[in-house]
Amino acid sequence: MDIHSVFIAVFILLRCNPGESFISNSLRVIQEVADGTVGAVAKRVVDQVRKVVDVSATASQNVNDSSLLGKIREGVYDVKNGIISGVDEVVGTPVTLDQLTFYLVTAENVENPTIIDFFKPDDLAQTNGRIIFLIHGWMSYTNSVFYTDLSKIFTSKYPDSHIVLLDWDQPASDYYPFSAFDTESVGEYVGILINRLLANYGVSLANILLIGHSLGAHISGFASKTFTKITGKKLPRIIALDPAGPLFVFRPNSKRLNKDDADVVMVMHTDAGVFGYPTVIGTIDFFPNNGANQPGCWKKLKAINLATYSQPVTCDHSRAWKYFIEAVEITGSFPSRKCDSYENFENGNCDRNEIVTMGDLDTVATGSFFLKTNSKPPFSIPLP
Predict the structure, then answer these.
(1) What's in the keyword line of the UniProt record (predicted)?
(2) Around 286, how many Cα atoms within 13 Å sit in the side-chain half-sphere?
């Protein structure tokens, strides 16, 4: 079992006792695991969790909105008596530039990305095409399929595009609350780099596109907030792939991705109420299979085999970038229909409504869009 799996175990196994914080409960649960099957790996996690020294607020709130309560599911969150509790918010140390690396991928160097000079991004600016920032989530890295496949597809379909791979692997590999805290400072660096491209190199604002998965979606939001603070302008488009839910559900708009961060905030929900944000958060929100319980992701949170559960548990959350890769590669795939609810979509009550495809990088449509998918690739299926 890898360290990623152990971190996920904390979320899944936690059922905090009254008066027992997430941190103390984490230590108890992981120590129990450490004494069993995962040994040294879990002991390293215990040591890391013990570094937590400043807990500023608990991510819990009384829920008066029944629609929100209905979309939060047991597992990552604990729902009791109308109160949603999750992990604890922490105050960490902002990320420094030396913890980040920006890589440039072009049609000429797909297999061998080059490092971008943050202060003199000359190579990055040498294009009239789109500049697309890809931003990974928690426990991910630059060699992930999300990065490699999308880079190949974008540079193949749009040869004049430049792809920026943000490597924030070090902060993203921390204890989740610290990684969540770090999204703001990471986003600030992205926003500063974007402003530098426009101010110093004359790059067109219309060519900037941010695509983030999970915590990377919130980094995109903070990048845009920073850019707006500097320039008074909005970025044209953010694509948020299953924005992270834990901790962010309870934050104000200023501390998370929201629909005002860019002219278009295009969101895909695949694990709503568990690892993903549970409700509408963008200008246009796609809900494949009602935004949760993706076909092919069968295992339930309460039936976890510690030796094998990492993939099944994160399957729904990862489907967002898997769907998006297919949507970009196959033009016209993932047709989605505008509707006010999944029930009305299934019942055919919205059959005359607007249709948008999930891979449309230029859509200005707004509202909630629903669709169904297959359980394995190709995931896209036609609308009925």
Answers:
(1) Secreted, Signal
(2) 30
- Report whether pLDDT(122) > 60: yes
Is residue 213 part of the annotated active site? The answer reads no
Burial 349-382 (b: 16+ CB within 10 A, else e): ebeeeeebbbbbbebeebebbbbbbeeeeebbee
Instruction: For 143-170, write each residue's pLDDT tens digit.
Output: 899 999 999 999 999 999 999 999 999 9
Looking at 136, 162, 269, 317, which residue is catalytic? 317
Distances (CA, A) of 246 to 78, 155, 158, 210: 11, 33, 35, 22
Q: Are 131 and 164 in contact (CB under 8 A)?
A: yes
242 in catalytic set: yes
Q: Which of 207, 206, 171 is nearest to 187 (CA)?
A: 171
Residue 38 has which token pair?
A: 């995962």
Mean pLDDT of 25-37: 38
**284 CB-side CA count, 13 A:** 24
Residue 277 · residue 292 · CB < 8 Å? no
pTM: 0.79
Q: Across the beta sheet with 78-80, what order do the strands follow?
A: 55-62, 83-90, 78-80
Q: What is the pLDDT of residues 258-293, one digit of tens each?
A: 999 999 999 999 999 888 999 999 999 999 999 999
Catalytic one of 242, 261, 271, 360 = 242
214 is catalytic: yes
Q: Which among 53, 43, 67, 45 is positioned nearest to 21, based on CA atoms?
A: 53
Tell me the CA end-to-end span of the chain in Å, nearest whole number.
42
Options 5, 26, 161, 214, the catalytic residue: 214
* CA distances from residue 91 to 54, 78, 139, 234 in whole angstroms, order as listed: 6, 22, 19, 28
